[in-house]
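User: Hi! I'm working on a homework problem where we have to compare a predicted structure to a textbook description. Could you give me the structure for the chain below?
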Amino acid sequence: MSEKILNVDYESEMGQSYVDYSMSVITERALPDVRDGLKPVQRRILYSLDGLAGSDKPHRKCARIVGDTMGKYHPHGDSSIYEGLVNMAQNWKLPIPLVDPHGNFGAVDGSGAAAMRYTEARISKYTEDVCMKDLPFFKDQFIPNFDGTETEPTFLPFQVPNILVSGSTGIAVGMATNIPTHNLGEVIDATVAYLNDPEIQLEDLLALMPGPDFATGGIINATPEELYNVYATGLGKIKVRGKVEVRDIGYGRKSICVTELPYTMIGGTAKFLDTVAELVRNRELPAVVDIADRGDKNGECLCIDVKKGTSDEEIQNIINILYKKAALEDTFGVNINCINNGKPEVMGLKKILKVYTDFKYGLYDTKYRKLLAQQEEIREIKMGLLTAVDCIDLIIEILRGSTKADAILAMRLQKLIGLEINALKKELADAEKLIKKYTRLMESRDAMKQQMIDDMLEIKAKYAIPRRTQIHNYGTVVVKKAEVVATDVAVLLDRFYYIKVVDANVYEKNIDQITKDYRFAVKCQNLDRIAVFADNNQVYTIKVADIIKLQAKKNTSKKGGGSLIGRLADKGIQVFEFCNMNGDENILFMDCIEHFVTDKLLFVSKQGLAKVVDGSAFDTTRRAANASKVGDDIIYIGKISEGDFIIAQSENGYYIRVDAAEIPEKGKGAAGVKLINLEGDDVLESVFVGSTKDTFKVGDNEIIFTRVKPGKRGGKGSKLRF
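Assistant: Happy to help. Predicted structure tokens:
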């Protein structure tokens, strides 16, 4: 049997397949439905729990719950199901958890839940009351599951806007959602206000529901305008910060205690403490003496102890540093992206309330239409039974020949006499009363609205909790920089390119040894900058303070902490940690920028070209910059002054002494002029700068400058006899 081969455009097929996959991820996994605020996996977990483990039943093994959910409704792997189950049970993520956990479900510090074979769960009483009790009214709206063997709900009938109460977070293909949690009581108040007046202004809604309410508490640092823009558009950024208390810990010492975490720090307390420790090592928090996690079962308490005598102003500055540099204040990006009518949509608060209340009217219409039909059936049965009492003898005669009078056949004869007749009359009256109520609800939208409001206010009275997250406009965090006192130091670079900073007194006392052992030694101040010139035509700028900071950090492993200023015996730090070198460069010159910025620098190439550049050309904030024309083979860089002479020595033994005044000043990117005329393959080997009284060394010979015959720049030079 031959098979038909179809020709398909590869690009078109791949594009359509990717779009189909993307929409599947967006609608079936990552984004919540605006009606019940649940992703499909969450909805399926709760539906499975409703059948397996009600709130009044024993907890069931999570492995059983996950298996039931995966086997019947969600064939996408057990890890995603268990993660969804755990998230709905963690009370530091949801102010009112949807799942009642039993066992180790992790902690706010980021430690994970135990394996599903060890943990247990059941549906929470809140979820059962607020959502599941009305689910039977919507069984006819269920859809087949993935293999057609079961049916499942496409929504759960939450009586409150769960998308606001429980929030949601997820990443789809090309889009994401990040909806904060809100206070149940405030959400109900806002929903009631919207039901009463759909034209209500957003400002009035925000007076009732001012902003997110996170389970971890903390503080929202935002202006009313910022919050208004978030809820008007469904997009925006808000600052969240931890709640801090300053406590006396005895002996005149105080501790900065983080008692409530910002929501963004969930799972990151260890990183926070590591960052604080790093700030201490970098001497940015010199008053801090101890860092500890003193949290207990009642909540987190991250403590930063400070030195005795630390002023309140210093403590507040430490707190500000924690806000700014340790993520104790962070940004929560709000993105209220949800599924509406099968499509993703970013919604503001009023649009959410409109869609939800329209959905709720539909729920109540279905519910009370079915309740009305049930009560009408009950009324018909009760009226028939009461009629039967009046002609019992005839009824018995009829029953002898019929098996279809089910209601009468199901009733004992004793119910048709005495007090049981009164009970039937009461049941009929109750049915009539409910029929009247349900009819009024079906016929009057105002009555239906009031029923919704009454039901939500009942939920509020039973389950609402006080707001945990404070909202306050503290503005931008301002960190007062500690004044750094200028001190005299010396920067030393040895022949192995290890650099370090020592005290100026150490430099003065050991100047002979330093001159002998180090290639460069620069006396400067701790606030200065060092310029390092290499033979790759680059100049590298290093802050002396950065060298001090890094060497102090490397010394913190020693008992008692590290000294800011190194010792002469210290090894130092490879200069490549501050400069983007590969290690093959030769460093030609190093000095303090503040020293040579008003001086002139001489550049001489291997080919005998020379130029003078103003030192200010290298006063830059860039960490690396061109020091000379690219391609120049520079062998010498150094300071030069008026009255100096330049002695150039070639490999073939030719020497020339040229007055520095003959070398013109040029830009750092310009070409040089000929200092000496080299013949053949001869190249310069050494350059010396000084006065006529100075000397230079060639091998073991020390030669005075005047031994070299003076000449004009560009001359051939002459050889010396030793």
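For your comparison, note the following. DSSP finds 20 helices and 35 strands in the chain. The first helix runs from residue 10 to 30. Good luck with the assignment!
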